[in-house]
Structures are given as C-alpha cells and as structure tokens.
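Q: Could you write out the predicted structure for this multi-component system? I'm mainly interested in how the pieces pack against one another.
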Amino acid sequence: MNPSDLKYHKEHEWVRTEGDIAVIGISHFAQDQLGEVVYVDMPDAGDTVTADDTFGEIESVKSVSELYSPVSGEIVEVNETLEDSPETVNADPYGDGWMIKVRMTDAAELDALMSAADYESFTNE
Amino acid sequence: MEGGLKRTPLYEEHLALGARMVPFAGWEMPVQYSGIIEEHHAVRSSAGVFDVCHMSEFRVFGFGAFDFLQSMFTNDLSKISELSSAQYTLMCDEDGGIIDDLIVYHSGDLEYLVIANAGNAATDWDWLQSHAPEGAILCGAGDSAHSPDGGVIEMVNESERTALIAVQGPEALRVIRELAGPDYDEPVRFSLSEAVLDGIPVLLSRTGYTGEDGVEILSHVSHAQRIWRALLSFPEVTPCGLGARDTLRLEMGYPLHGSDIDRGVDPISAGLGWVVPREKRGYIGAGAIARIRENGPASRLTGLTVEGAIPRHGYAVLHDGVEVGKVASGTFSPTLEAGIATAYLPLALSEPGTELTVVVRKKVVRGVVTKMPFVKETSLSAAKA
C-alpha cells in the first residue's frame, strides 16, 4: 500500500528524494480520512519551509487539515494542477497528487522520518 | 452501544456498505459511503436512499386534534383540510423563537401525523405534552391530552416503531413504481399515499429535503432492512449519508434546525414568513411574530456564494472590513463547485449581488449575496414547470 521507496511523516506526508530535492505529498491513509478533496491551499515557489511546520491546508467537504513539511528548505516547484483538479490527491496521492518540491537544506532530517513498514504500523494503531 | 448512541434498524446495513459512522443527535449515523460529492451527484442525476429512521413521528387523533395543533403551529391547518395532504410548518415559543420545523400531514379523519427533527425529539414531545391545556395523562406509548374545548386528544409517539427511508432523485419515483404492486396510487406532491413495496405495507410521502422529486417511506421498523435492500437492488440507486443530505439541502436553501434556525430566531428573520400566514391568530408566538413583521426584522437569513474556500459555521462575514454577521450554515456545493453559506445579515446588505467578504481561518475571501435556492434546476423544479 505505502510505496517502500518513500519516507513518511507522522502527520501523514510522504517524501521521495530526487538528489537534493524532496517531493512531498500526503499518504493514501490521509486522503482516505479526508474524503473528496475540494481545495488545496499551497504556498508559492520561492517560499521556505521548516521541518514539522505547516506549509498549507487541505479541505474536503467535512474537514480541514494542515499540511506539514517533513523537511526544511526552499520550495522550488508547486503542483499547480491541484488548483483545478484537487481530486487528483485522492486518485493518485503518491504520483500526480504530489504537492511541493523542496530543495533540502539538511538531508539528515530524513532520518527522523518513518519507513513504509513503520508508517504501516503507525496507521494501524 | 458506543457512548450511549442509538442505532437505527439499518445500522448493520451501513457497516456492510462500508459507511463512515458519526454521532448525530444521539444516534450513530452514516455520514458517507462512497463519498459525499459522489453521493450528492447520484441524487441530482439518478436516485439516492437515505436512512432517516432517527427522525420523530407523532400522531395526534381526536375531536380536539385540529384545534390543539392549530394552537401549536404557525401554518394554517385548514389549508390541509383535504385528507392525505401535508404542509411545512413551525412550532414557536411565546417570543416567536423556533422550537422546530416540521411537516404535518392530515393522515386520517380527525388525525394528524407530525414528522419532526431527530435533534428535537424530546423537546418537541415535552413541549406538545406540556401545552396540552388540561390534565395530560401519560400511558406509556399513548398519552391523552385535553384541547381547549374539553374534547379528548390521543397523542402517540410513533417514533420507536416507525422507520423512515427517503428515496430522492429524478429516477426515484420510477423505482418506487417498479417496487409497488399493480394497484399503486402515486401520491401527488406534498401528500401521503398507502402502498405495498416488495410485499410490505408502507405510507409514501411525496416530500423530501433534497430539492429533487421522490418520496419518504414510512414503515414498521421490522421491515426497514427489507425495504432498504429492495431499493438498493436497483443499480441506479446509491446509498447516501448525512454529508450529502447537508450539501443537497443547502443547495436548495432549506434551513436546518440547530444551524440556520433555532429558538433564538423568529420565522420572519429566517425568511420563513411564507409558513406564517398573517391572518392566523391564536397560536403560541403569534403576537411576537406579528410585532416583528410590523417593525421589520433587524436581520435576514441570506445566501452567500464563496469562491476558493468552504465557508463554515461561525466564520465572520465582513462588509468594508467590519463584521456584519456570521456564517450559519456553510458547505461546498458539488453542483456549483463553490462554497455556499447562509448568514443573518442586515437588510441593507441582503440584496443579491452585494459583495462581502468571509474570513476563512487565515484568509479573507469574496462572498456574494445570492438569492436562494443556489441551484435553480432540479427534477422538482422541472415537475412544477
């Protein structure tokens, strides 16, 4: 269920590393809990994020959740398609539903994240 | 039972369908099955079924029934003098505060059936009991009360033995027709009709809370599961939860007691003057409501369309940066793909097209006053045309 090449944050975001770039989105578990996503409120390219701080909001009919960044750095790209097609987050949370790409300032922050197996246990609790 | 929550006869059906259950008015109810937006679209385009067994049913019978209910409700019961007809009405307190909004049916000779909100089950029953003018006698399931002219009324709380399932959408009536026997007499809008569905005797009420045509099916609780399954045997019928129920009704501008209306609000401010005929007197709240009508309400329940964010209960509504009201009901409209909301606003700001702003957490977004219903074309508006 949860791709094994990714790392996971306790607030249900995942990270895929491409060199010094961290691609970030929310997990299958998170999109399922939210229900049909209606709005994704995201920052702009050029903004900075800090590990464990919020970078935006995601809304479904019945709930609003904060989005937390697993790493620190500068946002180099934002997934603009989510503005017109927020439901992509539900349909493909690990692929086309990605949210931001961050140039990491400290790759060691990845060590604090969970493996797919640990995240699996975490969400089963 | 989890946390003392009640369960309808369809509880296991919901679990088997993978519903997400939530507490609502003391009941454990399905908020969604496949998803709120998907279920909403299913009702607008085809048909949806809703478990509304949690609602209350009261039956009032006797020579004094008409006078008693006429003194308790705002709307004029003589408008439903024809047997089987129904009307939307309000029950108010002495200050004109809305205790509940209800549908009352002229279900038989000297008999009225009242369907009320689940959240007000105890309040409504206690209010009706306590206002029975003389010596109400409590006899378990049946209570007796005296009307002002000394006649006897029997008032029975039918809720526990009555199941209520709503079928709504452009395909709803066709599905019912297929399930009903050959002697089926389709009820006209806002009326009751006896029928037999899959061999089960039911009462069909051609009413609903979605803005689509359809019926609400009353049956004995022991038959609820069979009726539910018979309806879902049609591929064009989708199970729908409270989430879709809310988006559907708000698109129509239908009030929800506890959200748009409550005991702190009068019918005129709530835009419900149409069920409070001017000429009618002699009911609780008549004097207060007449005064509000004469002086004009200070604020009015107004519709707002909001882009880019979902307005939610309690969010501030601003005009020129000054707060002028708060969101009463707010949600996402799957049909309009925008946020929709109601708020009590000063009359001067309630003209359609008026530009306001809504504070949505850390953002401020544009809100435009919109004449309700937000969605103008449904199977019901087509049926009326």
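A: Regarding packing and overall arrangement: Residues 121-131 of chain B form the longest helix (11 residues).
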